[in-house]
Amino acid sequence: MNMGGPEEGVMSTGERLIYMANQIARNLATEEPGRAAEMVAEHIRLFWDPAMRARIVALAAEDAGALTPVAAAAVARIARA
Amino acid sequence: MSFTREKDHGTPPALATGRNVTLTIDGEQVILPEGTSILRAASLTGTAIPKLCASDNLESFGSCRLCLVEIEGRAGYPASCTTPIAEGMVVHTQSEALKQLRRGVMELYISDHPLDCLTCAANGDCELQDQAGAVGLREVRYGYDGATNMGQAKDRSNPYFDFDPSKCIVCSRCVRACDEVQGTFALTIDGRGFDSRVAASEGQDFLASECVSCGACVQACPTASLIERTVVESGTPDRAVVTTCAYCGVGCTFRAEMRGEELVRMVPWKEGKANHGHSCVKGRFAWGYAQHRDRVLNPMIRSNVTEPWREVSWEEAIAHTAAEFRRIQAKYGRTSVGGITSSRCTNEETFLVQKLVRQGFGNNNVDTCARVCHSPTGYGLKTTFGTSAGTQDFDSVEHCDVMMVIGANPTDAHPVFGSRMKRRLREGAKLIVIDPRRIDLVKSPHVEAAHHLPLRPGTNVAVLTAMAHVVATEHLYDEAFIRERCDWDEFQDWAEFVSQPGRSPEATEPLTGVPAEELRAAARLYATGGNGAIYYGLGVTEHSQGSSTVMAIANLAMATGNIGREGVGVNPLRGQNNVQGSCDMGSFPHEFSGYRHVSDDGVRGAFEAAWGVALDPEPGLRIPNMLDAATDGSFKALFVQGEDILQSDPNTQHVAAGLAAMECVVVQDLFLNETANYAHIFLPGSTFLEKDGTFTNAERRIQLVRKVMAPLNGYADWEVVQLVAKAMGLDWDYTHPSEIMDEIAALTPTFAGVHYDRLEAEGSLQWPANDAAPHGTPTMHMDGFVRGKGRFVVTDYIPTDEKTGPRFPLLLTTGRILSQYNVGAQTRRTGNSAWHAEDRLEIHPVDAENRGIADGDWVSLKSRAGETTLRALITERVAPGVVYTTFHHPDTQANVVTTDYSDWATNCPEYKVTAVQVGLTNGPSDWQRGYAEQTRQSRRIAPVEAAE
Questions:
Q1: pLDDT, tens digit, for every residue of B78-124?
Q2: Is the pLDDT of residue A3 over 80?
Q3: Bridge partner residues of B666 (DSSP)
């Protein structure tokens, strides 16, 4: 049923995954970029299920600009693993 | 346990001085700690001196004059409750003169007391009656024709207890219990001499007064003047069983006092190590839900959520559940199903649900309601200290000098511990409160915060970093502690970061709203005021930077050396009764019990060997990920034990969409909750009164839950999960929860010493409890951090993406209230609704006036996620620009409004920050009316067809 909410309040799953990856990267931004990317990748490896990891890799391939540089570097590490 | 009243030694134990004194009582030489009262000393050595106004949870008062004794060499007859023992003292507790004095006193009491013992509700359980017998009262010489206080009207306003002033002996125990134990100061003795009366607040009835209905006064009353309504209606109990409360994370232990299978009353147990004989309105009185007419006792199934439910046998329901999960896995894959464990259920039940998922479903798609409350605590404390738990026991508060309360409202959400905090504050400890709201602790009778930092919601990290700036730049840190216990290089990096000018209180004041000088003063007090203890709640965790805030707190504690001894520490106040336990038991999708990652080959190998299957080495889905996957079509079935995600989780619209997309939702619960609107199988649950098990409270204390009556639905929850597991082909054969705990102990190093016989012997154990700590661990990190060196983590402030603007100019924050609990499934079905029958929106007078809103008006509450309506409560407890509400009532469904922003590390929802607009409206919204109709339709149960 319609809960009365405007659509703008809901992210699609893909949007949410991109948002989450970028959010993790933002919170580790005080680290040097290479180290930050390593930490973001490690965080995603530890806490995201394989399907989510595969999805973020695919999303990054579809839209290279969706991820911040650190998040993109982290996802690239995951893709290589 | 048969029924015996708990021993009352008359006065509290003496403060420990380490010195003993030797005296003689009735010819017997005794040696006891200095400072002990004669009354207590006699009681400890087996002599019960008559008493009425004395109780060992209250300071001695000396008013009843019944406990008089003779002391050789001293004149007169001193009251033994107010006279401390002394070296060489010779005491006589019984003599002819004492007999006459006591009889005379008792005569005066009884001359103004109804002689209706045979019809009195307290007959057989009345101290006045007992003491009349003890002093040998045989007549009352004064007659009953004079003025008396008898015949006064009873106050029956409170839903749980009666106050009959006719039976009051004005001993002041109720008043002192309210003052000393509860700390509310709601009661007083009004008038003088013969006109003295117990009065609530300013002569109001109990319900309308400031009384918080904790029950301390009822427990203290030596007559039937204050007595539980259930005792009036059912009679006095005939047996008692000690068990653990199923409400908040304080974990109070109670005597469930029974008549046969009927629960007569719950009385807080004096030996309880978490509550020491105190209680709150929920644990003490709000257990009526256990036998509420709404409880569903028969399993039910339906093929479609638009159909009525059909009652079926347990056999059919279990077989159908197993078949559905196997069918869905066969069709959509191994990872298309999952489960949610409950923080309300026992450790053993939680362990079994995650075992069902890992062993039976063959994946790690298991999560728990801690996802939406304290998951950042697990992440933050494990990262910094090495273990996902608070550092102290509750008793530690007695040794703290400065208490810093961040994003918590203990007097409402953890009331029994809140009372202990207030007691310590009355003794002189200083208080810092960091909270957008002016919670009760900020200013209440005899308690006032030294500093209240009313920060703008969402700026926790900025405030804590500014405090760290003060500590670092003013050199208030404990260098010796840091060098010994922490990584010095990491500390230096952290100190350099927090010392940057942009992180000073002055620089951050414009965004946090906290006056810089006030913040500096608070930081100095915490760092230099002696033992500094931090207590925090969901106002810390339920933010997009929840984990960062937990780490910022840990940083502050390490920097100031406030870790590793009594009186200090970092203490998460857990919301539900077994949040700690559900996390400990491996409920998160990335880790086994004891917080060990599923990718750890050694740990996983141990579980594989024990369970006889290969286990998935990859993390599974968290609750929000499950819902996302469901809307995407890859997640199709969910087993939910004791959680109502539709009401409790954020962005109701998204939760509903996820549930609606699944082919099989199983809800195991006491009631047809909101989630059950989307369920296909309903398995009735059992209450904490109906099963054995353990809960683990916020201080890591594992306590026994004991069955006091048979499950009304036929099975304890652990038995139901076992039936499902067996139907799925698993070789489970537990005959008692103790066997489940034995398995937990065998597989979890921190629980290695936890077995039921040890819990029975010790009363409780705080993990780690193993060979290294056979009696448990009250204080963590005493000699070193669990991870080795304490780790300082740089926590940069990242503003939330939930922004206010012209359309949504106010910030909504949500929370709890004393009388209701979580989604209200239990407390809404009790007399507690007398205090909180609906969720209200707290709004500052300025914001209300700008919108033309008067107190009690219906207002719409609208965010980017959704809209609901509720009535306004105008109050200065909230700052201008901030509004607040609770989420206890499904009619309001506050989470229609909250968004799906969440903590960066754990996905814990950002309940505490939602940009909203508030405006006048005429009443419930179209959504609320529609939802009410959907619920009505969903809860239909088809009539059972008559047998041919």
A1: 999 999 999 999 999 999 999 999 999 999 999 999 989 999 999 99
A2: no
A3: B639, B681
Tell me which residues of chain B, numbers 633 to 662, contact chain A at a CB-CB cutoff of 8 Å: 634, 651-654, 656
- Neighbouring CB atoms inside 10 A of B615's CB total 17
- Are B420 and B273 contacting, i.e. CB atoms less than 8 angstroms apart? no
Q: Using DSSP bridges, classify how beta strands B591-592 and B596-597 pair: parallel, antiparallel or unpaired.
A: antiparallel
Residues of B in contact with A4 (CB under 8 A): 866-868, 896, 925-927
**What's the gap in Å between the CA of B621 and the closest CA on chain A?**
6
In this prediction, residue B872 carries a pLDDT of: 97
Exposed/middle/buried for residue B426 (C-beta within 10 Å: 0-12, 13-18, 19+): middle
Does A3 contact B618 at a Cβ distance shorter than 8 Å? no
SS3 A65: coil
Q: Averaged over B714-733, what is the pLDDT?
A: 97
Min Cα–Cα distance to chain A from B795, Å: 8
Q: Could you tell me which of B442, B429, B440 has the C-alpha nearest to residue B403?
A: B429
Give CA–CA dist B135/B138, Å, rounded.
9
C-alpha distances in Å from residue A6, one per residue of A10, B857, B864, B897: 8, 25, 6, 10
User: What's the pLDDT score for residue B57?
Assistant: 95
Contacting residues of A for B867, CB less than 8 Å apart: 4-5
Q: Identify which of B904, B927, B931 has the shortest CB distance to residue A23.
A: B904
Interface contact flag, A9 B794, Cβ < 8 Å:
no
B905 touches chain A (CB under 8 A): yes
Weakest mean pLDDT among A4-8, A51-55, B82-86, B116-120? A4-8
What's the CA gap between B937 and B623, in Å, rounded?
26
DSSP string, B524-542: HHHHHSSSEEEEE-HHHHS
CA distance B285 to B424: 26
CA atoms of B555 and B758, how far apart (whole Å) = 36
The phi and psi torsions of B512 (rounded to 5 degrees) equal -90, -25
Query: Residue B934: its chain A contacts at CB < 8 A?
Result: 1
What is the pLDDT at residue B892? 85
Q: Which of A15, A31, A49, A68 to mutate to test the interface with B (most CBs of B within 10 A)?
A: A49
Instruction: Tell which residue, B89, B108, B105, has the closest CA to residue B97.
Output: B105
Distance CA B169, CA B285 (A): 25
Nearest residue to B903 (alpha-carbon basis) of B512, B373, B365: B373
In degrees, to the nearest 5, what angle opens at C-alpha B344 toward C-alphas B343 and B348? Answer: 80
Residues of chain B found within 8 Å of residue A27, distances taken between Cβ atoms: 545, 548, 796, 798, 904-905
Contacts of B262 (CB under 8 A, 6+ apart): B234
Asked whether the beta carbons of B285 and B277 are under 8 A apart, the reply is no
Coil/strand/helix, residue B288 = helix
Q: Which residues of A touch B906 (CB under 8 A)?
A: 47
| String of DSSP letters for B888-917 | --TTT-GGGT--S-B-TTT--B-TT-EEEE
ipTM of the complex: 0.93
Q: In 10 A of CB B25, how many CB atoms?
A: 24
Size of interface A-B (CB pairs under 8 A): 97
Please, what is the angle between helix B347-355 and helix B737-747, to 10°?
A: 70
- Is residue B562 exposed (0-12), middle (13-18) or buried (19+ Cβ within 10 Å)? buried
Question: Distance between CA B188 and CA B182 in Å, rounded?
Answer: 14
CA neighbor of B653 nearest in space, from B930, B937, B895, B917: B895
**CB pair distance less than 8 Å for A16 and B548:** no
In B, which residues are within 8 Å of A74 by CB distance? none
**Hey, is B41 helix, strand or coil?**
helix
B899: closest CA of chain A, how far (Å): 7
